[in-house]
Amino acid sequence: MVGKALKWVSFLFFAVMLIWGLTLIHPFGEPLQSDMDSYFIQNAQKECAANNVVTSIVFDYRGFDTLGEATVLFTAVMGVTAIFRGVMKK
Amino acid sequence: MRMSKIVRTITALIFWAVVVFGLYVVIHGHLTPGGGFQGGAVIASSTALFLVAFSKEEFLKKYKDAFLSLAESGGLTLFISTAFLGIGTTFFYNFIANSGGIFGNPVPFGVNNGDLNTGGTLPPMNMAVGLEVFGGISLILFFMFLGAYLKPFNKEESEVHKE
């Protein structure tokens, strides 16, 4: 009986908190700090000489992130190859 | 073990179309949505199509698995070395952009027609990542395809693995 009451109380608590948080959310399309977005929009085409600003962010401004992604993929393939290595011996 | 003649004919028809579409996504990575990761995954889906429709012997006739390993590690090495070439300023510096040579045309601000000969180091990096993703996902697909037909560890064979 106590467990059921606890379940309902926690459910109501999280529901109220979620709805409260949704009412406090700030409107879409009006970022609080727009300095970096404005810099990319104004300068990315000139500095990276590419029309696709997303690609110039991914491969140039945030190149380390892409390097990490490529390394993660490489490591995953190495793991799969190590697991299935015995298959190729036949 | 191969699939029926209908599946094999359709695969032979659309295999190169899939490869060419993936190459388009990779090469136009600095102009249109997409890039190395997405285009490499599209090219690797042609490998999945080939493996499902044909047998692993025909796959091994067409691709050596050393070629796929070479594509993967070579792509990652090309990516890192392209990043290192700009070390004179910073790591990942776009040193070819606006230089006038290959991939070096300047781009006007705002909406404009795309020019393929722009982007600096972005197109070589896209191609390197595309090569890496193609090799890596193809290797995963190939090894998992082989592993799915392994015999189980216990002595009596199950019905699934009797081919």
Topology:
The complex is a heterodimer of chains A (90) and B (163).
Chain A (H helix, E strand, L loop, with lengths): L1 H23 L10 H14 L4 H9 L1 H21 L7
Helix pairs in contact in A: 2-3, 3-4
Chain B lengths: L4 H23 L8 H18 L2 H7 L2 H20 L37 H26 L16
Helix pairs in contact in B: 1-2, 2-5, 4-5
What does this structure look like?
- The complex is a heterodimer of chains A (90) and B (163).
- Chain A is mostly helical and 90 residues long.
- Chain A has a domain at 36-90.
- Chain A has four helices and no strands.
- Chain A has helices at residues 2-24, 35-48, 53-61, 63-83.
- In chain A, helix 2 crosses helix 3 (53-61) and helix 3 crosses helix 4.
- Chain A starts with a helix and ends in a 7-residue tail after the last helix.
- The radius of gyration of chain B is 20 Å and the shape is elongated.
- The N and C termini of chain B lie close together (8 Å).
- The longest helix of chain B is centred in the last third of the chain and has 26 residues, at 122-147.
- Chain B has one domain (5-105, 118-147).
- In chain B, helix 2 (36-53) runs parallel beside helix 5 and helix 4 (65-84) runs antiparallel to helix 5.
- Chain B has 163 residues and is mainly alpha-helical.
- Classes of the chains: A mainly alpha (90), B mainly alpha (163).
- Chain A binds chain B through residues 45-52, 54-56, 58-60, 63-64, 66-67, 69-71, 73-74, 76-77, 80-81, 83-84, 87-88, and chain B through 29-33, 35, 37, 65, 72-73, 75-76, 79-80, 83, 91-92, 94, 97-98, 104-110, 112, 114, 118-122, 125-126, 129, 132-133, 135-137, 139-140, 143-144, 146-147, 150.
